[in-house]
Structure formats: structure tokens, C-alpha cells
User: Fold these one by one.
Assistant:
Number 1:
Amino acid sequence: MTNTEALFTPARIGDLELSHRLVMAPLTRNRAAADGTATELMATHYAQRAGAGLLIAEGTTPNRVGQTYADIPGIYSDSHIAGWRRVTDAVRERGGRMFLQLQHGGRVGHPDNSGLVPVAPSPIALPETIHTASGPQDAVVPRQLTTADIADTVADFVTAAQNALAAGFEGVEIHSANGHLLHQFLSENTNRRTDRYGGSIENRIRFSVEVVTAVADAIGADRVGVRISPRGTFNGIQEGDTETIYEELVTALAGENLAYLHIVFADPKDALFQRIREIWPGVLMANPNLGWGVPLPEDGGRGAAADLVAAGADLVALGRSFISNPDLVERLRVNAPLNRLRDEPLMYVGGADGYTDYPTLAQIEAGERAA
Ligand SMILES: Cc1cc2nc3c(=O)[nH]c(=O)nc-3n(C[C@H](O)[C@H](O)[C@H](O)COP(=O)(O)O)c2cc1C
């Protein structure tokens, strides 16, 4: 069997049987209602992509202060549960399986988006602008979380995970990547605390470990994945001690029997990727580095996915290729041509344009467009 053929063999996450190894990565698209409720349009979008072995729904905030941008979804109210239930029903009707990514933005947020001053491990502003309804604005200095706030935030993650199951998700992915709150605790340049959540590596991994273990205790470890982005610099992150901190974090989580560990921008040739594969006893999901800010490769990541499987990944997550190809898995299976991703501005604005109007191969052949 070739490495590409291996992509299309069955896999498991906990009790879930997946018919192949391609996962839709979490993709923020700012299509929720103003109060964070998932919309019918989102149900259509995800249902179109139900052919993914697993879909990971976009970064969704576990509480109001964790909201990053305008029109991103939440999972902390009855309306949020009902909105996401419509999405998971639509996906399940098409045979799809879905986890929800729980994303607390920490300092990646703005009072104009959430109505609240963002919170973070330390009062250090994101050195970038934040997109708001009135355009990009300088980030504000976040309020430093007290230890009592940290305990409350862990509890919010637990409630959010329980809400996600009530909304019909199979499980949740805890976002400890890409410069969001959990990553801000891991990284030296965003965590200047002198209490038990800052300083040593043991202290800086504490918040991620507490969130993950509390959520696993509440909903079952086999329903909990974790996303990490070693070496990632999104949102002003400079980790400092990448090798050691991820070795410690992964070791601390290795005994938990989690659903999976998900690595962003995984490079099969990176010694750290190989080391994590050695330490991590469970399902390893890898998101290949296809280049950022550049057009995607013609094959949409098929070759990179096969290389990661050859290097020991159990599952491969793809992002942008799923945006422009609702039937991505079928196209990769038969090596069919792919739709090209249209303009980047369409990624983070409301509406069907660039969201639900990418055609499947069958629709192109029949001369139709997507709904
Ligand atoms: C429009 C867009 C939105 C994204 N939103 C999220 C998100 O909500 N959570 C997250 O962990 N990563 C997010 N990412 C990162 C993707 O999950 C993925 O790691 C990245 O796009 C690289 O994979 P790709 O090359 O297959 O697109 C986003 C990326 C894009 C392009």
C-alpha cells in the first residue's frame, strides 16, 4: 500500500470509527449571528463538507470574554446550543462526525467585539491590530487573570464542553495553539507571572493541563482532543523554549487517554514532530505546513498528507483546501482537479459568497453551482 492509499484506510478516535484519515481543520469564518449563535448558513457549509472523516468546527468561545472577533460563535448559552444542534443534525444526516473547537482568545480580543476588556496571563497587549465591526483597531492591554479567574475559566471550559455534547458534537478540541489563551500561558513572552502559572515550564503548562484534564473528567477523555502549534508565531507568540515545553506538555497529557493530539503546521522532518510521535501513545493528528500567505499546492495537500502518515501521523487535518472544495476527500481519493481558493477577504466576512458557493466536482460536471 502506498502512503497515499493509507490515507483512505479506516481509523478510530475513541469509539468513533472513521472511514478514512482526512479531517477538516477548524476554520473561523465569522458567519455566526451577532450573539454568537450558529446560523443555517453554517449548517449548510458544514453539511456540504460532511465527507471529511471528522469535521472540527471552528474556534468557538467558552465564555463571553474569550471572544476574539465579531460574529464568531459561542457555546455558553441555550441559544448557542440550539444553533449548533442544527449544524450537527445537518452534518449527521449526511453521515458526518463533528468535534467542536473550544477557543478562548485571551488577549486576542477587543472590547468592541465582546463588550469586555480581554483577559490574559499577563497584561501584555497583542502587538497587532484586531478586526472589529468598525475595522482594524489596536489591541488593548488585557487584564491579568487572578488565580480565582483561572479556576472560573477552567469551569467555563467544562460547561462549554458539556454544552457541546448537548448540541450533538461527538467531542471537543481544546485550542492550546496559535497564540490564543492557553498558548499565551505556555509562551515566555506572553506569560510573565510569578505564581504557580508562570515561570518554570511546569508552571506554564499548568493551565493547559488543568483545562484538558477537567474537561476530560467531565465528558470522558475519549471525547477530548488538544491542538498545539509548536514553533508557531501567530498572534505575537515567541515561545523561547519550544522543545522542552512541548516535550513536558505532551508527556503530562500522555497518560490521559485523550481522543487525539493535533499538531499545527507539522513537519515530518522536524525532530520535535518525531519526538512527539514517540512520546504520544494515542491518536496523532497532523496539519501539514503547506506554506502560509502563498497559494496552496496544486494537489491541495495530498502529498504532504501522505508524507505525514508515513512519518507516523494517524490522521491529517486540512484547512484551506476544505474551504474551496466541499467534496475534497472524494477529489483527493481520485486525484481530481481542485477548485482554487478565492479571495482571502471572503474568509472572514458574512454571507454565502466564498462560503457555501464552491461547487462539487459532480456539480461542475453537471454544469450546476452549489446551493
Ligand atoms: C480562514 C481560516 C480560519 C482559521 N481558523 C482557525 C480556528 O478557528 N482555529 C484554529 O485552531 N485554526 C484556525 N485556522 C488554522 C487552520 O486550522 C489550519 O491550521 C491552517 O489553515 C493551515 O492548514 P491549511 O494549510 O490546510 O489551510 C484558520 C485558518 C484559516 C485559513
Number 2:
Amino acid sequence: MLGSLSGRTVLVTGAGQGIGRAVAVQMARQGASAVAVADRNKETAAETAELVRAEGARAEAIVCDLRVRDSVHEMVERTAECFDGLDVLVNNAGVIETAFTAEPERGVDSLSEEVWDAVYEVNLKAVWLTTKFAAPHLRRSRRGPAIVNAASVSGLTGFPNAPAYGVTKAGVIHLTKVTAVDLAPVRCNCFCPGVIDTPLAQGYFAAAADRDAMERELTAPQLVERLGRVEEVAKLACFLASDDAAFITGASYVIDGGALAWLGVRD
Ligand SMILES: NC(=O)c1ccc[n+]([C@@H]2O[C@H](COP(=O)([O-])OP(=O)(O)OC[C@H]3O[C@@H](n4cnc5c(N)ncnc54)[C@H](O)[C@@H]3O)[C@@H](O)[C@H]2O)c1
């Protein structure tokens, strides 16, 4: 199939839902030959794999817990073995404090060490480990090898009550740069979404005392008056993975409806 990702073999983490699912499907739509759909949730990974097959690509659903080193290693090796190599790695999976604690205490001075470690292990340590294990395969690729990481606007500016999330996303932005340096000519870039309509964002709204007020508060700084769509982020991720972005590496791309463009809020 012709397309900007023609013939690529791809691994997407956290591909069972949300942005990761959209990225897996969009990769296939743009010509990827095979997509490994990794998630800790077996059922949702299998659903995404079906969606990828419906776009004409091969798909392998892989159950992986990114907090477990051997599971990460197995995910990468199984992908490379099934697809005879790896051209594109998308480190998409991420978690926020609300996934681990129902407690209102999520500030710098009240977060528990357990929650800090859980967010760190998925959002930053696993991104590094997956990159480390994928590096030999990506270096062997002759089809424009690339890594795309999921960061966040939270890694660029301060948000309340998600300290581990923001710090780990800032870490992903820097990890993107050092990866681009150390693995060149393998390219590495990241996307920094604002508020995108996914189960993660909906869970964050739901954890607030007033769900709708929280959604309004988070989208009020945007110049585009709506939640972002997963397809919009997926198209950016696919661009960064493709040869159309051959001169781009070590870079961060904000996709936030303009929220970081100014210091204001809409009326
Ligand atoms: N949705 C947003 O508004 C938004 C904003 C900024 C950044 N992001 C980032 O984009 C990425 C995708 O976000 P999303 O909103 O689609 O999230 P989501 O919660 O909807 O989906 C994340 C997926 O990752 C999987 N996952 C979580 N922990 C895992 C683990 N230990 N091992 C394996 N898989 C695991 C989950 O099962 C889930 O399928 C994340 O890195 C997130 O931080 C999202």
C-alpha cells in the first residue's frame, strides 16, 4: 500500500484506547505494513488489533505491563521477531495521578511516594527502557527509523495537582532530545497534547468535585473552543514518524488548541 509510512513496522504502547489506538489505526491507514498493539489490557489491545487489520495491515496484540522490565523487553523482542524488524516506535502510554489515587491529596506536599513511583515508572522509566531495548532494531532499519514519544503541555508549564505527571512529561521532552542525539540517525521527536478527548482526560474530569467546571477550566485557555480529537494527535504522530519529517529530530510539537500561546482565558 502506498502512503507516507509505506512498508513500516510499528510498535505502539498504550494502544488499547485513546490516542494510542488512534495512532495504531492511522499508521495502518498511512501504509504501515504491520503494527504491534501493546497494552496491559488484553481485550482493548485485541480490539485495536482488529481495527488495524481492517485498514489492511498486519497486527499483533501484545499484553505488556510497562512497569515490569522483563515485560517491556519481551514486548520489544516479540514485535521484532513477528515483523522481522522494527522501523517505528511510539512510546504513547502514560498515566496521571488520578489513575492511582481517589484521594484529593495530589499536590507536591501531599502526594504519596507510591503514586509518584507509579507515574514515574510508566511515564518516564518505561519510555527510556522501551527505547533502550528497541534501539538495536531501529539502528538496523533501512526504512527511516523513528521514535515518537507522548509528552504533554504539562511538561512545558505548571498545572495544579499532578506533580509527578508534569515532571515526568518534562522528562520525556528532554529524553526526546538526548535520544535524538545518542541514536542519530534514528530520529526522535515528541508531541505535547493539551486536552484531548480520551478516557484519561475524562477520568481526570470525573475526579473533580464538579466535572463540567473542570472541563471548562481546562479548555478556557484554548483559542480553539473544544476538546482535541485523538485523530488530530494521531496524524501529528504519523507525520513525525514519516519521511516527510526527515529533517526533524529532537523536537517537541505542541498540539493544544492554542492554550500555551498566551496567558489568557476566554470569556
Ligand atoms: N488525553 C489527554 O488530554 C492528554 C494530554 C496530554 C498528554 N497525553 C498523553 O498521551 C498519551 C495517551 O493518553 P490517552 O489520553 O490516550 O490515555 P488513556 O488513559 O486513554 O490510554 C492509555 C493507555 O495506556 C495503557 N497503559 C497504562 N498503563 C500501562 C502499563 N503499565 N503498561 C501497559 N499499558 C499501560 C492503558 O491501558 C491505556 O490503554 C499519554 O502518554 C498521555 O499522558 C494525553
Number 3:
Amino acid sequence: MPLLDATATHPITLPDGRLYRDTVYLKNVIDHPRMEIGDFSYYTHSGEPEDTAGILAPYLFRSSLERLVIGKFVQIARGSYFITSSANHPMTGFTAYPFRIFKPETFGYKDLPVRDTIVGHDVWIGHNAAIMPGVTIGHGAIVAAASVVARDVPPYAVVGGNPAGLIRMRYPAEIIAELLELAWWDWPIDKIEANLPALESGDLAALKRA
Ligand SMILES: CC(C)(COP(=O)(O)OP(=O)(O)OC[C@H]1O[C@@H](n2cnc3c(N)ncnc32)[C@H](O)[C@@H]1OP(=O)(O)O)[C@@H](O)C(=O)NCCC(=O)NCCS
């Protein structure tokens, strides 16, 4: 029996047979014109499934110009969220007070920089992390709990702290290059599941033969 079902709203069934309702597959509960989300990426929160977009990225409005792009197999822990570029107040004048947001005719600061936030595939974002506007997090990266990520994160880096700094690289550069080339996240799900022992044990030779 397959382990994953890309169509599920709540993908986790607990050992006692109950659905774990706090975890949702993002793609199946979010319908937002500025968000793009890949299959199997999940997030855990205690709100209703239909509130997920607002909890994940509270300042990404349907009228925002920036995008939040999240790849496949991304794991986002409870309490983590994205501050996207629409969250910024104007900072070039003598006040940051956003006078123009109060009326529909003037809403939106068109002169503020628009920066997309991009999360690659197979990224693990730990508990209570905040991801700042315009950040790109590379494939396979890990964000430590309670981090504030304000700068780009390279693929397969582990970052942590406020501001998040490099804790270590997960693998040597040549292995990372091979993993990026392999791009297992683009395989059909049955091929991924058939090769799970090699993925889980880190058997690169077996993965390359798959
Ligand atoms: C990032 C993480 C995976 C690292 O795990 P690890 O490799 O076992 O880490 P270690 O405990 O050996 O620590 C390695 C270094 O990272 C630092 N570090 C660990 N967690 C950190 C954090 N949250 N913020 C900042 N630095 C952190 C440690 O201080 C240590 O630094 P040092 O080498 O200078 O002493 C883990 O600390 C973490 O944050 N996990 C997230 C768990 C989580 O949020 N789960 C939610 C449900 S999915």
C-alpha cells in the first residue's frame, strides 16, 4: 500500500486509526493566487484548514504582487510562517506609518520592492521559524527551530538562529551536486516509495541505479 496520497487534506493517520487533523497538505487546502505549492508539502497548525493560507503567510494578500513558491515534499512545523514583501511599510520617507492602506483608492505601495519567497523541494522548516521577505531556501535545506531566516539558504545547508546562520552543510559539495542532479522529488511517487530504503539510508549508488 502506498505511504502517501497526494489528494489527502489531512495526510497523517495516527496509529489508533484517527486522522491527525492539525497537519494538512498545503496544495489541497490553499487556493491563493499568489501561492504556488508542490505535492506532498505539509504544514501543521491548530486552525481550520481553510485558514491555512492566512496562518502560513499572514501578509500575502490576494492583491499582492509577490509570490510565495513552495516546492514538493516540504515539511513546515507548527508555528512557522512567512513574512512576505507586502508586509513591509514604506521606509524611505520620514514615517513608516502606512497612511495609504486605509482606503481602497490608495491601497498598495507600488514603489516598494516586490520580492518573491521561494522554498525548494524537500526543505524541513522546524518549529516557530520565521522566513523573511524575498528569501530563497535551497532544496534539501533544514531550518532550525525558532530561526529567523533573513538571507538565502543554500541547498542542503542546515541554518539556525536569529538571524539564521550556517550550522553545517549536510553533505560534501560533490554529493550535493549529485543529489541536485538526481532530483528524486521529480520522480513518480511509486518510484520514490520503491526506492525509500536507498533514500533513507543515503545510498547514492542505489539511487543512481533506480
Ligand atoms: C537544526 C537541528 C535539526 C539540528 O540538529 P542536530 O544536528 O542534532 O543539532 P545539534 O544539537 O548537534 O547542534 C548543532 C549546532 O546547531 C546549533 N543549533 C541547534 N539548534 C539550533 C537552533 N534551533 N537555533 C540555533 N542554533 C541551533 C547548536 O547550538 C549547535 O551549535 P555548535 O555546533 O556551535 O555547538 C535541530 O536543532 C532543530 O532545530 N530541529 C528542529 C526540530 C523541530 O522544530 N521539530 C518540529 C516538528 S517537525
Number 4:
Amino acid sequence: MSFQVTVLPSGRVYSVDDDETLLGAAIRQGIGLPYGCKDGACGSCKSKLVEGNVTHGEHQSKALSADEEAQGFVLTCCARPHTDCTLEARTVPGAGEFPVLKLPSRVLAIDKPAADVAVIKLQLPANQQLQYRAGQYVEFILRDGARRSYSMANAPSRLGTPPAIELHIRHMPGGKFTDHVFGALKEKDILRMEGPFGSFFLREDSDKPIVLLASGTGFAPIKAIIERLQDEGITRPVHLYWGARARADLYLHDWAEQAAAAMPSLTYVPVLSEAKPDDAWTGRTGFVHQVVMTDFPDLSRHQVYACGAPIMVESAQRDFAAQCGLPPEEFYADAFTSEADKHQG
Ligand SMILES: Cc1cc2nc3c(=O)[nH]c(=O)nc-3n(C[C@H](O)[C@H](O)[C@H](O)COP(=O)(O)OP(=O)(O)OC[C@H]3O[C@@H](n4cnc5c(N)ncnc54)[C@H](O)[C@@H]3O)c2cc1C
Ligand code: FES
């Protein structure tokens, strides 16, 4: 049995099979709904159900509150329809543009630019071409079927020869996948993955100035977006804020400085929240999103792209809109949610 879903205001119609979520079916058919974690934790897929009935699976209350649910909002990644439905959701041009492929990848190189960060190059198979937008992510499919998401850190134009994607992976001690990455993973290992996924990428139909906001390895998709800006010769003003605890955590600080030196439209502001005496840090300190608010008390004419720790993304989304006048629809984000976030109340 399948149901028809109509998406407003675009008027696009797609079908959802038994046991599929509204989002799963939309991704399969290239409909381009907004989303991030696909797992009820980030809230990026929140949409209004105008007509129809769905069963809502488990999700975080911070992604969708009981109040919002009562008002008819749903998380498309957790909602399974049992009637035809009408959904009010902004479609994201380009989000479903490229085919989602399952493919094996081979570890070409593993570097550790910081104690808890691995930069991994993964060679793509010669017979399958992974197309994606700078900012999107892939999922590794682990042996037990669990999945883990990682954002490409290189723009698709910079895959190199042989073609390889670059990922920045932070070790979460006790984590199913990253314990393996920081333990047994070695060159030539094969990892199964699927992608591209996500609606976090540059909106190129706008000429608004851009704030890029990263914490930790949230820098990965931001780096890919900067490469995209360079490759396309886009000269919109870009302000990059990268937050980390200590200097050593800014694992590609030199890359960011060089990018800013080469791109007159780009400024780079690194921010440390726990600078150590050894860091001899003379730069900005504090919470990275608050530093942005000091520098840009008025964000009403900006676009913001934020990526990394869920707490940073949530704080920025809330405070930029409430205190700096950022239009909510001009905030684009991927929150790096993990099992830890999914098991918080
Ligand atoms: C869209 C997206 C893109 C992402 N991109 C990146 C990226 O580019 N780089 C990056 O570093 N990360 C990224 N992430 C995060 C990444 O997908 C993983 O969540 C992260 O690497 C942890 O994976 P893991 O398997 O090692 O840990 P998990 O197994 O998910 O565990 C994470 C932590 O939670 C703890 N934990 C496990 N189970 C529970 C439980 N039941 N209750 C409480 N605590 C628990 C573990 O001990 C560990 O400390 C992204 C996430 C999303 C959603
Ligand atoms: S809550 Fe649905 S995509 Fe994250």
C-alpha cells in the first residue's frame, strides 16, 4: 500500500510506500525536502502537516516539542503516513538533484592533525561517480547495519586523482564508529557508504553576505563550501568563524589563514573557548556564536551557515533570530548529532 503526499507551496506530489517515512520516500524520489540527521534529533526536517494522518516515531523533544506536535508540526524523518497527506515544507532546490548511491570506498590516507581529529581520504570506485554539493554528507553503513554520517570536506571539483573524498572525524570515546577509526582503521581498508545526503549547502541564488560558523569538525563542510566559493569565483562577503577549545583543536588553522589571504572577500576569525597558557593566544575568546553576535549585532541581511556541535547550532539559531534579527529561513545548519544526543530526554 502506498500514499500520496502533496508538498505545498511547490505543489510537488510523491508517493510513500508501506513502512517508509515521509522523508525517506522524498529522498528516494529526489523531492528535496530540508533535513539533517534523518533521526529525530536535529529538527531540520520540521514541517507542517496540513492534511492527513501520520504515526510519529521516537524523536527528541528539542527537535519537536509536544506543543509543536499539537499544532500539527511533524518531523518528516520520523513520520509514517497512514492516509494521503498534504505537507507544508520549503523544498530545497538541488537537495535531491544527485542520485543517492551505495558504494565501497577505500582508505587512501589517514592523518591526525590533532589528537582527537582524523582527516581521512577515501578513494571512490572508478565505475561509480559520486556527485554531491559542497556541504553534503555520506553515511557509513557499519557491519550491524548502524549508520554514521560524515560531511565531505572537499568540494566535488577537488576530488583529485584518483578521485577521493576527504572527511574530518572527531573521536568520541566509547563511540561505535570513531573508536574503530582511532583504533583499528588502516590504509586500504574498505568502508561501505551511501550518499550524498543533506540540505546543508550554499544557496547560490542569493547575493547576501555570508557568515560561516563552525565548531570543531563542523569545519569540514564549511571548508568544502569555501572551496566551492573559490571555484565559482563567488565574491559575496564571507565571514568565517571557527570555534574550538584550544589552539591545537583548530586543526586546519593554516589552511583557513591561507584561504583568507587568497580570497579578498573572506575574513577568518578563530575563537577559542578554553585557551591554554601555552597557546599564547591573542585572538578572540569565548563562545563562537556570541563572538559573531558581538561583530554583527544586525544579521537581518545575512545568510548564516552553521555546522558542528548541536549545542552551538541550537544556540546560534535561537540567538541570531531573537537578538540579531536574522530571518529564520536564512539560517542553514547541520548539527552533528550522535547517539549521545538521541538518548538525552
Ligand atoms: C548530518 C551529520 C553530519 C555529520 N558530520 C560529521 C563530520 O563531518 N565529522 C564528525 O566528526 N562528526 C560528524 N557527525 C557526527 C557523526 O555522525 C557521529 O555521530 C559521531 O562521529 C559519533 O559516532 P560514533 O559511532 O563514534 O559514536 P556513537 O556510537 O554515536 O556514540 C557517541 C557518544 O555517545 C555515547 N553513547 C553511545 N550510546 C549511548 C547511549 N545509549 N546513551 C548515552 N550515550 C551514548 C558514546 O559513548 C559516545 O561518547 C555528523 C552527524 C550528522 C547527523
Ligand atoms: S530531526 Fe528530522 S532530519 Fe533531523
